[in-house]
Specification:
Oligomer: single chain
Distance between the termini: 98 Å
Number of strands: 38
Radius of gyration: 33 Å
Length: 765
């Protein structure tokens, strides 16, 4: 055997007796599970330890000690009538760390479908479950196909009714397994009359395989193959499915006939390759392996055709048994420059993270394995850069009211004390983050969105993980925003002091957005999906010379600075209710109805960050103008870091992160929805060391006669567009800077709100 790729290997013991019906593969962590039947139709588990392969050593597959064979009868009870013999080909699928194995039990007289489970630790559940559809036993006169449903939570089991020529589907939820180990009841989906779409499929086409793929706009498709050994042909049906993997309808626009393959030996195996394409493996009339791929970036049509090609590794092994393929990613990553071609155009990428993708095929009457390098997944840190459509606009970062201080506590001030801050607080976050950014190979991965154009308003990512590779980058982010409580003369030149009536807003011009994309480059150097439809994209903001931090003042609207009573909850509620009632219906629609019935209870407290176990920080102010020192600096409290905090970065794969097309070019929305048929998930896991706090400093007048003592609660509210709308609708005034450049539609700032409790006059000294 050659140590170079590709190579084939025959383990010394496993698979010495192979039935010819073919088996099914599932990857369970670092164990490849091949569920098959031997020459006497007895069910067997052949396992291969692929940890060496995942670590980048494909030759480890050619070590006999990594292979093992276990008979089902030595692990599984024969109760419930199971003979543990397979009449047709088997079906196996991994879900939640377990491998679920299905077969049609018996050899000639029985057609009942059973299931058994291999646990994540390599043990087997001792019972076999009889599969049922409602109140009836589930039976099949064909082989079975199984796949995880698009919602990632269930299994859809497919069979072909050879007497009625219907394609049947059964949705099985692992949560519905009977605790007694006797039955597993599923829900049947809509039947498809296969002959209505492909009249040549008859009862002899009893060997099946199937796999689904996603499309943008929330559409998923299932491709099912039917094979007849008598005709030597494989025929196909392509149909739309829902989240449960069952047909959405039987209409002609939702079901398609696909190009027939002639001269086929032993049937077809369908799976998803690392490029997100449907991959069909078969052997031709000369018993040589052939493959077909369908690029799932292209919406399917009735003219569905796929060119015939040899295996990418160049091997031409012969077999009378259906070959079963699987793709395994190496967990080892390397940083290098790579190149490839897209539609004949040469492309080069620097500073990439790459991960090898290996192809394995199990085949032959006595099991053999073929191993080759299928290609590599490449994470490109900056495949494209998108600039704001309106760079002069400003995105709000935070709104901050001044710290509450009563006019009566000012006393008589010297001229030099006017317009000089007496209290300052700084809201700031400093974090050092180790970001583990990785590519996670998946059995199935898709994007679902509710819209067909523009940025997705609702996006779900889901995947079944197989292996993972990570690279680490450390980022330090700091930010700080300061607001001053300042006395002014009112009326001017009167010597009478009051607290200035403004707060501060902070923001920034919209940043550029850089796309981090994951591409697949096949063994021949071709990028099948191209850079315009990558396997996966994540997005981060970029600060540079074109990104400007801005600030300005706004008129306090929730209370009257200097009048401490207006900071009490009942007064704030009344003020905000009146402001809300004064808005038009369209303006009210941009806020929450809770404004009308209790601002503090309905709006502030539900949106407050959890600060050390409470939704607020608490300060005490005495008549001498002091505050409790233990609240002056708060550390080791997790800050909510997002686009709302100046200088932070975000990863676009988070379902909680949305980016509006208001401030990016339309290409962003196109990338968000076109070609997102993924086989690689980009993950971002962070280990953060945070220092977060409120820095508070006071230089207030001391021991003022008639002063007030009170307690202050400071709420830091989570980012929301409501605070931007409040500024737009309520924060106007003659002393306020123009808001012409602020993007009130897109901005999601944080906000700092105060509440005063129990104001009391101090006892005269």
């Amino acid at each position: 055997m050659s140590s170079s790729l590709p190579f084939t290997f025959k383990p010394s013991a496993p698979g010495s007796q192979h039935s010819g019906n073919g088996g099914s593969l599932a990857l369970q962590g670092s164990t490849l599970v091949y569920f098959m039947s031997d020459a006497n139709n007895n069910l067997q588990f052949v396992t291969l330890d692929v940890s060496g392969l995942q670590e980048g050593d494909p030759t480890s597959v050619a070590t006999n000690g990594n292979w093992a064979e276990t008979s089902a009868s030595s692990r599984i009870s024969t109760k419930n009538g199971a003979s543990l013999k397979a009449r047709y080909g088997t079906a196996a699928v991994e879900l939640g760390g377990k491998v679920y194995c299905f077969w049609v039990d018996g050899t000639s007289n029985s057609d009942d479908v059973y299931a058994m489970i291999r646990n994540a630790d390599g043990t087997y559940e001792t019972s076999a479950w009889k599969v049922r559809a409602g109140s009836s036993d589930y039976s099949s006169s064909s082989s079975l196909a199984a796949t995880v449903t698009p919602d990632g939570s269930r299994i859809v089991l497919l069979r072909f009714g050879t007497s009625s020529m219907n394609l049947h589907s059964l949705v099985l939820d692992p949560n519905d397994l009977s605790m007694t180990g006797s039955t597993w009841t599923g829900a049947e989906g809509t039947d498809l009359d296969v002959q209505s779409y492909n009249s040549n499929i008859d009862g002899g086409y009893s060997q099946m395989s199937a796999e689904w793929f996603p499309q943008a706009g929330g559409v998923n498709w299932m491709l099912a193959s039917f094979y007849s050994n008598n005709d030597g042909k494989a025929r196909f049906i392509l149909y739309k499915i829902g989240d449960d993997g069952t047909p959405v309808s039987t209409g002609s626009s939702d079901v398609m006939k696909i190009q027939t393959l002639a001269g086929v030996t032993a049937g077809c195996s369908i799976t998803r390759d690392p490029a997100g394409r449907l991959y069909v493996l078969y052997s031709n009339s000369d018993r040589d392996f052939r493959q077909r791929t369908f690029d799932t970036n292209t919406p399917p049509t009735s003219q569905f055709e796929w060119p015939d090609s040899t295996l990418p590794y160049g091997a031409t092994e012969s077999t009378d048994v259906m070959g079963v393929p699987i793709f395994i990613a190496a967990n080892q990553v390397s940083d290098q420059s790579v190149s490839g071609t897209q539609d004949g155009t040469s492309l080069s990428f620097t500073d990439t993270t790459t991960m090898a993708q290996y192809g394995l095929i199990l085949y032959d009457d006595s099991i053999r394995v073929m191993v080759g390098l299928y290609g590599q997944s490449v994470m490109v840190p900056s495949v494209s850069r998108m600039t704001p459509t309106n760079p002069s606009s400003r995105l709000l970062s935070t709104l901050m009211d001044s710290f509450p201080f009563p006019n009566e506590n000012l006393g008589s001030l010297a001229p030099s004390q006017f317009n000089s801050p007496i209290i300052a607080y700084t809201y700031g976050a400093s974090s050092q983050t180790s970001n583990q950014v990785g590519m996670k190979e998946t059995l199935q991965f898709g994007i679902k969105t509710e819209v067909d154009a523009g940025v997705a308003e609702e996006t779900e990512f889901r995947a079944g993980p197989v292996g993972e590779a990570t690279a680490t980058q450390t980022v330090k982010t700091t930010s700080g925003f300061t607001v001053y409580t300042t006395p002014v003369q009112d009326p001017p030149d009167s010597g009478t002091a009051r607290i200035g009536a403004t707060g501060e807003y902070y923001g920034a011009s919209p940043p550029d957005i850089v796309e981090m994309a994951t591409l697949f480059i096949d063994a021949s150097g071709v990028i099948p999906n191209g850079v315009d439809a990558p396997l996966f994209s994540a997005f981060r903001t970029v600060k540079d010379i074109n990104t400007h931090r801005v600030s300005g003042q706004f008129a306090a609207y929730a209370y009257t600075p200097g009048d401490i009573d207006t900071y009490q909850a009942s007064e704030i509620d009344a003020r905000m209710r009146a402001l809300y009632d004064g808005l038009s219906a369209s303006e009210q629609a941009n806020l929450d109805p809770g404004y009308a019935s209790g601002y503090m209870e309905n709006i502030v407290r539900p949106n407050a960050m959890d600060l050390g176990g409470d939704g607020y920080l608490e300060f005490t102010v005495d008549g001498a103008g002091g505050s409790a020192s233990e609240y002056e600096q708060i550390d080791e409290v997790m800050a909510l870091v997002g686009l709302s905090i100046q200088g932070s970065e975000y990863i676009g794969e988070s379902t909680e992160t949305t980016v509006s097309a208001v401030f990016v070019e339309e290409t962003f929305s196109e990338k968000a929805l076109v070609g997102m048929d993924f086989s690689v998930e980009l993950t971002a896991q962070s280990t953060q060391t945070n220092s977060w706090g409120i820095s508070f400093s006071a230089n207030a007048p001391q021991s003022v006669s008639g002063s007030t003592a009170y307690t202050v609660r400071m709420y830091v509210l989570k980012p929301s567009n409501m605070w931007a709308r409040e500024l737009q609708y309520f924060g106007s005034g003659s002393t306020v800077q123009s808001y012409d450049s602020i993007d009130f539609v897109t901005s999601q700032p944080t906000k700092i709100v105060f509440e005063v409790l129990d104001p009391q006059p101090t006892i005269a000294s």
